[in-house]
Specification:
The chain has helices spanning about 5-15, 30-40, 50-60, 80-90; strands spanning about 20-25, 40-45, 65-70, 75, 100-105, 120-130, 135, 140, 155-165. About 25% of the residues lie in helices and about 25% in strands. It is an alpha/beta fold.
Length: about 170
């Protein structure tokens, strides 16, 4: 919702490396729709009242690819890293269901990285599009039997050459 501040940078950082871009919009009143149309992304609009779990489940219903890369409006990938990620999936993806990598959050400026336990996260940001996949909570992806994709019977891989750069805490008030 009203995510135009970093949205264009976010889309540009991935658009050459993904097969489709799906934006779920919570009735934005800013330039979000204009930016989405400019990049020919699919858009799903609704009244989600800020419920990110519900929003994420919306794009899972229509995603067609074998793999899903989750990118929030305030997250940016470096071109060389996202290129390596795509190549890695093409070569090794059949052995895994979930790929994790570092989540680097910036505080107030794009130069000050937040460190510490809760900021050193590795989130489910790239996973196979398997039958019945859904979010139970904001960052927890499950299958049709409610087994979390990040554990149990699913194979995970941590890739140290990919990072998601999170700029939400740099947004102006």
């Amino acid at each position: 919702k009203n995510a135009d501040y970093f949205l264009e940078y976010s889309i540009k950082s991935i658009k050459d490396f993904v097969d489709e871009i799906i934006i779920v919009d919570d009735n934005s009143q800013d330039r979000t729709l204009e930016i989405v149309k400019k990049h020919n992304a699919k858009i799903i609009r609704g009244n989600y009242n800020g419920d990110k779990r519900e929003q994420r489940n919306e794009y899972l219903k229509v995603a067609k690819g074998d793999w899903i890369l989750v990118v929030d409006d305030d997250e940016i990938y470096k071109r060389d890293e996202i290129s390596k990620l795509r190549n890695w999936i093409e070569e090794n993806g059949k052995y895994y269901t979930t790929i994790k990598y570092r989540f680097i959050a910036f505080w107030k400026t794009p130069y000050q990285v937040i460190n510490g336990h809760m900021w050193s996260q590795m989130l489910e940001r790239c996973f196979k599009n398997i039958e019945g996949i859904h979010y139970d909570i904001h960052h927890m992806v499950s299958d049709k039997d409610n087994d979390y994709i990040s554990g149990g019977k699913y194979e995970r891989k941590f890739l140290d050459f990919v990072n998601v750069y999170h700029y939400s805490y740099c947004k102006p008030k």
